[in-house]
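From the pipeline queue, job 12 of 40. The input is one protein chain; the requested action is below.

Action: predict structure.
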Amino acid sequence: MHLTVTKADFRIALSLEEASDPTERSEFYPRKRERCPLKGKVLTVLALGIGISILSLPLWAHHGNAAYDATKQINLKGTVTQFIWANPHCVVLFDATDESGQAVHWMAETENPTTMTNMGWLKSSLKPGDAITIRVITVKNGKPIGRIVWVETPSGQKLPGRLLPTVDDAKQ
């Protein structure tokens, strides 16, 4: 049997009309491939997960102790100039004198306020003008910056500054 173009068109139109389900097609119009909606969602979630992981890598770098010389702890006597009770770390700013008698402005950090509260600290533990004795782990570059091991308040209370000092307190 030989079909002409008009007969072929008529046959196609007739087969499409007869199909009650619009997804049914004749041999001239094969079924369309349908996309799986779950596949797109899985790929989107995967891409977002990878993106967030990559963007959060710098946050891990924040908690390094590479700047500190874990083998060198020093005791200082000084006067508190400011006590910052804030996330991510509480900070004590204080003035101490060096070997030549010159005033040196120190900055010493410790843990976050929640951890500090659990270790006995209060927002009011240190006030500007308080005379303190403090032990710090110094930084490698020699600047007046440190990580608090402990602070002795004017009342004689000794407050820990780190959960686990890297050098045993008894050795220094």
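Job complete. Helices lie at 5-18, 37-61, 113-118.
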